């Protein structure tokens, strides 16, 4: 997952060296989102996540994605070819993220929330890792790209050591209409609406947090220190905070219920999105503390939406339903990722992130309705 934000993490350096426009900067992340949507649509229509050995599917996609990411080093960041490499990376990630979740569900035995939470925690730590590489790579943005490609290559090899659990179900016959069940089934639809509220906020926050912290820290310290501490704080917020949030979220959801956890996490993250701008240019320690709360809460619910889909879906269609869910969510992120630079221009950093609170607050409503639905007894052993 380090490939996802490999280019986004080096945005401050690229802006200094290549004078990127706001749209070009947004494309560093949104092109991956577009590619992911394309990949998940193909996977969902043909049921690839349920019909191909997940280890081989994962390995093939990770290999191609690592190669596409490394190929960026051959092109100028302002070129179309650079963006196309990001697009190809996104397409291939459709065979990594939802497929990894499908493999995790095959081992669940009353602890689905924790298992998927651990996997999404790894996803979060991996997605944040380019910010750590970038902090120690100085202004050499090529170092971050190359390192992300190398560790993705190792993942493609390591996945072959993974065993498939006892909950694996035989592949169903090909059915192009099977993916529609994600929105025709009322309970699945509510779970997906909750997920969409979560995704409205998540990737825009992840994509722009580093830029926000860099701009804030530059108001209170010199440029070199500001850059290093902004990169480090972004990794801590996204990576360590996010991984901790996924672990806590999994434990709480398995014990007290999926809707309980998702509503609480979205309420906290939405509130954080509103408050964080008021600390722009303020004391760095206080700002980072709030960002850490935001980083923990903004991802704590992510795995539980996936666990909810797995519990509400027919066992033989879990891979397809998870793929449809992620496809819908990442399609929505295209809007918020491109919205942020315009919001910053119009409102300034003090208020721009507040727009992201709309999603989680609507998500709380969707999950509250799911909690009242009869099928909610399938969630977390009846704990909803």
Question: Can you characterise this structure?
Answer:
The chain is mainly α. The protein has one domain: Growth Hormone, Chain: A. It contains 16 helices and no strands. It has helices at residues 11-18, 22-46, 48-51, 54-71, 80-93, 97-105, 112-137, 141-158, 181-184, 186-217, 223-256, 258-275, 284-300, 302-312, 318-347, 358-372. Helix 10 (186-217) packs parallel to helix 15 (318-347) and helix 12 packs antiparallel against helix 13 (284-300). It starts with 10 loop residues before the first helix and ends in a 12-residue tail after the last helix.
Summary, kept brief:
The chain has helices spanning 11-18, 22-46, 48-51, 54-71, 80-93, 97-105, 112-137, 141-158, 181-184, 186-217, 223-256, 258-275, 284-300, 302-312, 318-347, 358-372. The protein has 384 residues and is mainly α.
Keywords for this entry:
384 residues; mainly alpha; Growth Hormone, Chain: A; 74% helix; 0% strand; globular
| CATH-assigned homologous superfamily | MFS general substrate transporter like domains
Alpha plus pi helix count: 16
Tally of strands: 0
Shape: globular
Number of domains: 1
Q: Do you know the CATH architecture?
A: Up-down Bundle
Q: Main β-sheet, in a few words? A: none
Q: What is the level 1 CATH name?
A: Mainly Alpha
CATH topology: Growth Hormone, Chain: A
Q: What's the helix-strand series?
A: HHHHHHHHHHHHHHHH
């Amino acid at each position: 997952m380090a490939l996802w934000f490999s280019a986004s993490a080096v945005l401050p350096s690229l802006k200094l060296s290549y004078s990127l426009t706001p749209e070009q900067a947004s494309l560093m992340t949104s092109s991956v989102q577009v590619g992911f949507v394309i990949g998940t649509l193909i996977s969902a229509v043909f049921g690839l996540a349920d019909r191909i050995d997940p280890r081989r599917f994962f390995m093939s996609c990770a290999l191609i994605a690592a190669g596409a990411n490394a190929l960026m080093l051959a092109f100028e960041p302002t070129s179309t070819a650079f963006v196309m490499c990001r697009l190809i990376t996104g397409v291939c990630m459709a065979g990594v993220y939802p497929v990894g979740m499908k493999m995790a569900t095959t081992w669940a035995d009353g602890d689905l929330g924790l298992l998927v939470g651990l996997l999404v925690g790894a996803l979060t730590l991996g997605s944040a890792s380019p910010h750590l590489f970038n902090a120690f790579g100085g202004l050499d943005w090529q170092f971050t790209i190359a390192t992300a490609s190398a560790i993705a290559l190792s993942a493609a090899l390591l996945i072959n050591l993974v065993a498939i659990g006892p909950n694996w179900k035989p592949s169903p016959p090909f059915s192009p209409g099977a993916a529609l069940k994600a929105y025709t089934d009322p309970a699945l639809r509510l779970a997906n609406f909750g997920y969409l509220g979560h995704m409205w906020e998540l990737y825009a926050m992840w994509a722009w947090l580093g830029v926000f912290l860099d701009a804030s820290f530059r108001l209170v310290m010199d440029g070199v220190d500001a850059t290093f501490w902004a990169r480090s704080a972004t990794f801590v917020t996204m990576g360590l905070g996010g991984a901790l949030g996924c672990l806590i979220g999994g434990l709480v959801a398995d014990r007290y219920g999926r809707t309980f956890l998702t509503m609480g996490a979205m309420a906290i993250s939405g509130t954080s999105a509103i408050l964080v701008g008021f600390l722009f240019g303020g004391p760095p320690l206080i700002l980072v503390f709030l960002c850490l709360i935001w980083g923990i809460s903004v991802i704590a619910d992510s795995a539980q939406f996936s666990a909810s889909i797995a519990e509400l879906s027919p066992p033989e269609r879990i891979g397809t339903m998870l793929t449809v869910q992620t496809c819908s969510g990442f399609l929505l992120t295209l809007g918020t990722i491109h919205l942020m630079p315009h919001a910053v221009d119009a409102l300034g950093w003090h208020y721009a992130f507040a727009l992201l609170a709309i999603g989680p607050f609507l998500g709380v409503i969707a999950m509250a309705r799911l909690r009242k639905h009869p099928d909610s007894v399938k969630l977390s052993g009846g704990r909803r």
